[in-house]
Design a protein that fits this description.
Elements (H helix, E strand, L loop, with lengths): L12 E3 L6 E3 L3 E4 L4 H6 L11 E4 L4 E2 L3 E2 L8 E3 L1 E7 L15 E8 L2 E2 H10 L4 H4 L5 E2 L4 E2 H4 L6 E6 L2 E7 L7 H11 L7 E3 L7 E2 L5 E6 L3 E7 L1
Parallel strand pairs: 3-15, 5-11, 6-18
Antiparallel strand pairs: 1-2, 3-4, 7-10, 7-16, 8-9, 8-15, 9-12, 13-14, 13-17, 17-18
EC number: 3.7.1.20
Protein name: Fumarylpyruvate hydrolase
GO molecular function: acetylpyruvate hydrolase activity; fumarylpyruvate hydrolase activity; metal ion binding
Length: 228
């Protein structure tokens, strides 16, 4: 083992449903505008166009059940998404082979500092300040595909303080999970521990301290996140 000149950063590891082991996170890829209705509400054409991705940091994923309202913003939005967890990877993965690389699935929120993201868009700058901040991706447990299969359909719902704000179905994704994996592998070498957040349906909106978010996906259970 080499001698390091600073403390070694901890590995982000997420709980796995029904198991004592944890899933170690390597990279986090997020696909944008992957539901037609959400593309429309964000002011874009819903036609199928080449997918685009941005990234969050591994330690942005947070299974604690709380979301601290971040600084330097007054407009934080919820985006409910399916998370895909990879057990293997590679380059130029064929679509037909893509699901062989999936370890499991889970629930995730892509919390977004919408005002800061909007400022970056206007200036043609990267979005990280609006997307990749601390604890910006609350997540539920990882559900192994060996237990839940590979969900290609199922209701996705998010309630804010008991009121339904987002609802859709996994079958409404413009780019399906195998296609996302294959496309990403053309531009990045995927590896075990990679996570893909697969986009959100319409209905995104603001949260404030004291709010409670309840998210469910058929077959993957539910999670509750409190905004603090």
């Amino acid at each position: 083992m080499p001698d390091y000149v600073t403390d070694v950063p901890p590995v982000t590891a997420l709980p796995v449903a029904g198991q004592q082991g944890a899933f170690p996170v390597r990279r986090v890829y997020c696909i944008g505008r992957n539901y037609a209705a959400h593309a429309v509400e964000m002011g874009h054409d819903p036609d199928r166009e080449p997918p685009f991705f941005f990234q969050k940091n591994p330690n942005n994923l947070d299974p604690s059940g709380t979301f601290p309202y971040p600084e330097h913003t007054s407009d934080v939005h919820h985006e409910a998404e399916l998370a895909v967890y990879l057990k293997s990877g590679g380059k130029s993965i064929p679509v037909d082979d893509a699901l062989e690389h999936v370890y499991g699935y889970g629930l995730s929120l892509d919390m977004t500092r919408r005002d800061l993201q909007g400022e970056m868009k206007k200036m043609g700058r990267p979005w990280e300040i609006g997307k990749a901040f601390e604890r910006s991706a609350p997540v539920g447990p990882v559900h192994p595909a060996a237990d839940v299969g590979h969900p290609s359909e199922g209701r996705l719902e998010l309630k804010l303080n008991g009121d339904v704000k987002q609802e859709g179905d996994l079958n409404q994704m413009i780019w399906k999970v195998p296609e996302m994996i294959s496309y990403l592998s053309e531009y990045f070498e995927l590896a075990p521990g990679d996570v893909i957040l697969s986009g959100t349906p319409s209905g995104v909106g603001p949260v404030k301290p004291g709010d409670t978010l309840e998210m469910t996906i058929d077959g993957l259970g539910s999670m509750t996140v409190t905004v603090t």
